[in-house]
Amino acid sequence: MTTSAAGGVTRTIFQAPSWWRLSSRGPSTVAVVLLFLPPALFLFTLFVALPMGEAAWYSFYNWNGYGMPTEFVGWRNFELAFANRAFRIALTNNLLIIAVSLAIQLPLALGMAILLADRVRGTATFRLIFFLPYILAEVAAGLIWRFVYDGEYGLLAKLWEAFGATPPYVLADPDVAIYAIMVVVVWKYFGFHMMLYIAGLQQIDPSLYEAAHLDGASGWQILRRITVPLLGSTIRLSVFFAILGSFQLFDLIMPLTRGGPSDSTQTMVTYLYSYGVTRMRIGFGSAVGVVLFLICVVFAFGYKRVLMRND
Amino acid sequence: MTSTIVRYDTPVTMAPLMRYAILFIVAGGVLIPLLATALGGFKSLGELRVNPFGLPSEWDWTNYWNILASARYWQLMGNSLIVAVLTVILTVSAAAMAAFVFVHVRLFGATFLLNYLLLGLMFPAATAILPLFIKIRDLGLLDTYWGVVLPQVAFGLAMSILLFRNYFRQMPKDLFEAALIDGCGYFQFFWHIILPLSRPILATVSVIVFVHSWNNYLLPLVVLNRDALYPWPLGIMVYQGEFSTDWNLVLAFITLTILPAIIMFFAAQKHIVAGLMAGAAKG
Amino acid sequence: MSWRQLVHTAACALAVSLGATTTASADVTVRLLHVEQDRQISGFWTELARRYEAAHAGVKVEVQYLENESYKKKLTTLLQSPDRPNIIYSWAGGVLRDQVKAGVIEDLTPVMESWKARFAPAAIEAYTIKDRIYGVPMHTAQVGFFYNKDLFAKAGVDASSIKTWDDLLAAVKTFQAAGITPIIAGGADKWPLHFYWSHLAIRIGGRQAFEAAMGGQGKGFADTTFVRAGDLFAQLADLKPFQPGFLGVTYPQSSGQFGDGKGAMILMLNGLLGSMRVNSADKVGIPDDRLGWFPFPTVPAGKGDPSDTLGGLNGWLVTKGPPKEAADFLKFFSEAENQRQAAERGLYIPVVTGTQEALKHPILRQLAENVGRSKYHQIYYDQMLGPSVGAVVNDISADLAVGRMKPTEAAEAVQQAWELAR
């Protein structure tokens, strides 16, 4: 805020904050606020906030979904959830997926972004190819990968046989299935993060690189000292979306394994769906949903406060 | 720029050959499942078992043809399109307007409202599905397009508003001041200045919202009863249940239902890159 | 395409769209929703619907199919929506009880007064809750071992010699020695596995054990009967008798695998016949003369009667507030004349008296006899016990099948779930 409205004078002594000046618009401000804000707030409150609140309320009841809840059970649903083995597996799986996202998916995205940040021939095509899995419906991605992993006609099976071994039934093995799913998660979402990083990289002044090279910096040093720090806020945002997204994973898992085998691939949302909603134990499902929500809220606001303070 | 000159103004200096080698390998990993899916539709079931990777020995067009010629496919696509377009229009309008207020009007409690909206990112739709269903039913919107569109808009608002807000925040402040001098009111400012300059972010948000709507499965499953209104994800689950082990038919069906989203993406991609650039750079 | 063909197509399209509008203004529409994957069966139902329409002007019967899993997911919300179908498919049992308690199912007692006698008493009983009839039974099924005669011959196993549980275990070992997969199972869906556990419980404790457990006597489902069922099932599971990757295979896929000759036997209900046809690679599966059946083996010192059967009693329910044509259609549907055709075509085993003689398929005939003779026909546990307990039974069965759970834990888990659901 260094240019005053009068023009020409570049030294600022005092500048009234914009809201001060805008308020002199008076009725226009009020009108804009009244007209522009309510549609979003109304829709959001009606279809998101209220159902959320109601779902939280249901968590204190034992309810099969018909009519209205009548059987109040207090904290029982929460106790049952924490005592349930599958719930703990689901929680662990979510954390595992986050770990894989951070350790593999995001670095892969960053790597590809760096390779594709400048506009040389072919990069546009590659960007598109890497982004394709993201736009694929999760239902479709799940079906496709089920085909890939199929122990009989899957691509994986063919690969194994080419090496002369009997193919494993990856999705049927409780010890391995979750890793198979993580491959799909990385495949599906890394393109989205890559695009975020590309955008961020394009903001960095190329002369910085040039200067660094002239100073004899190696590739790694450039990466660590220039690229990553300057990409800081983008990376923080991408991590934010990645973690929140990992908690919500559901649509991808259902067509692949439905949470099985033996609950080994349950995530919080598939768990609340299989154990709550489809078994007509809506209160229980809601309790799990509330736990998930609280975890997300604690994470999100903690993260924003600590890491995104200056963004 | 020929590929033999090593450039120093890029984040990585790598022999172009090496760079392309890596890119091709990763691209292969990404594309192989997709290509195998598309090709699978051309094979017979028996051939699919012995030759899942390669080109079909005989290009059997009947699977694809039968699906394309079936009224059902077009009905599914049409339904998905109607719902998606409505969702995009409403979401983009509501989100842009709300974001505008957050950026340009110093509102008391703006942070609170913003955090309120952010909560929408943390709540899985699967949990809220039953109270949502009850709400939709009580509003008489069951089994209608609006019963699907309106909740989708609501759930999409959080991310959309965040993206718009980031973009608007980076627009030059002088713009606003200049407009004020010219006696521009808020509405005119929004309509004549902000929106035209926001094409990139408008395209970005539109594509993201479109894709989410296009791919949505759970909400339509619960809201819609008549298969005349089914969007394609419901159609495919029904299809896959009916023909559960005819993988070649299922793969053909999947390929055909993905194509529209791919086409839409290609068409808008220029805007997307520019839009994400602005929306993400400052976090 | 020639001009004439083009005009013809256009005319047809026009007629269809006009037809669509005229049917939209038909007086009454009855909507029926089912989950039957077998086109022959659903086609038969559609045939009956058309015949009914022909005989009743102004009535349209819409037969709708929804895939099994989606159907179960949607059912709760569906039944509370004003646009619900009028007739829905049902497996009776606990789900029906919940639905009736929720008040979403029409009481058919007055309507069926005149024609309920045409059904076997056990069938009506399955749909009777507190002396009111809530559904129209359609067919019965029995769970037993279907086997591939060729594979049995190859391994040198004689099916008629498998009478006890130990005989079964021995047969499994023989198959493994011969390099043949002994048993096919659709583990991903879990319910095919729960047949083992529940049938063992039936053999071990008979009717009294089950009724005692449901009544909450003693330790309920944690009682010795059910623990022993788990023990015996674990014995089988330890031999690893199932096809590789069975935990990832759905029931339809497994029926296809059996039809393709990938395993010697499968414990399943007679719906397998149709399922196998639809899902095998050659669309035929095992031809009838190469397909055999034997009942679930007995266990040493079992209190259950060897003639006890495990199976289903599937039928139709009418949702609240239907047009009267809905029940009328079901009356037409279950007329002996009509159901006899289902028997003749070998589609399923109808429960309308007098139709079973028309069964031509030898296995279906035998099953019909078995169920007719049985003094204790247990409806599948996962239906009988209701959705949440039933799901637990399925879960523990799947866990027992891979040795991930101990039999005592399994039985206790079921009992816990049962107590919660009371």
What does this molecule look like?
The complex is a heterotrimer of chains A (311), B (283) and C (422). Chain A has helices spanning 18-23, 27-36, 38-58, 76-83, 85-116, 123-135, 138-149, 155-162, 177-201, 206-214, 219-230, 232-247, 253-256, 268-277, 282-307, and strands at residues 61-62, 71-72. Chain A is an all-alpha fold. In chain A, helix 5 packs parallel to helix 9, helix 9 packs antiparallel against helix 12 and helix 14 (268-277) runs antiparallel to helix 15 (282-307). Chain B has 13 helices and no strands. The longest helix of chain B has 35 residues, at 247-281. Residues 276-283 of chain B have low confidence and may be disordered. In chain C, strand 4 and strand 5 (132-133) form a beta hairpin. The model of chain C is unreliable at 1-24 (pLDDT under 50). The chains are: A mainly alpha (311), B mainly alpha (283), C alpha/beta (422). The interface between B and C is medium-sized, with 22 and 25 residues.
Summed up:
The complex is a heterotrimer of chains A (311), B (283) and C (422). With 311 residues, chain A is mainly alpha-helical. Helices cover 68% and strands 1% of the residues of chain A.
List the helices and strands and how they pair.
The complex is a heterotrimer of chains A (311), B (283) and C (422).
Chain A: H1 18-23, H2 27-36, H3 38-58, E1 61-62, E2 71-72, H4 76-83, H5 85-116, H6 123-135, H7 138-149, H8 155-162, H9 177-201, H10 206-214, H11 219-230, H12 232-247, H13 253-256, H14 268-277, H15 282-307
Antiparallel strand pairs in A: 1-2
Chain B: H1 16-40, H2 45-50, H3 62-69, H4 71-104, H5 110-118, H6 125-138, H7 145-170, H8 173-181, H9 186-197, H10 199-215, H11 218-223, H12 232-242, H13 247-281
Helix pairs in contact in B: 1-13, 3-13, 4-7, 4-10, 7-10, 7-13, 10-13, 12-13
Chain C: H1 3-24, E1 28-34, H2 39-55, E2 59-65, H3 68-79, E3 87-90, H4 93-101, H5 109-112, H6 121-126, E4 128-129, E5 132-133, E6 135-148, H7 149-155, H8 165-177, H9 191-214, H10 224-238, H11 251-259, E7 265-269, H12 272-279, E8 291-294, E9 309-318, H13 324-333, H14 336-344, E10 349-350, H15 362-373, E11 377-379, H16 381-384, H17 387-401, H18 407-421
Parallel strand pairs in C: 1-2, 1-3, 9-11
Antiparallel strand pairs in C: 3-9, 4-5, 6-7, 6-8, 6-9, 6-10
Helix pairs in contact in C: 9-10, 9-17, 10-18, 11-12, 17-18
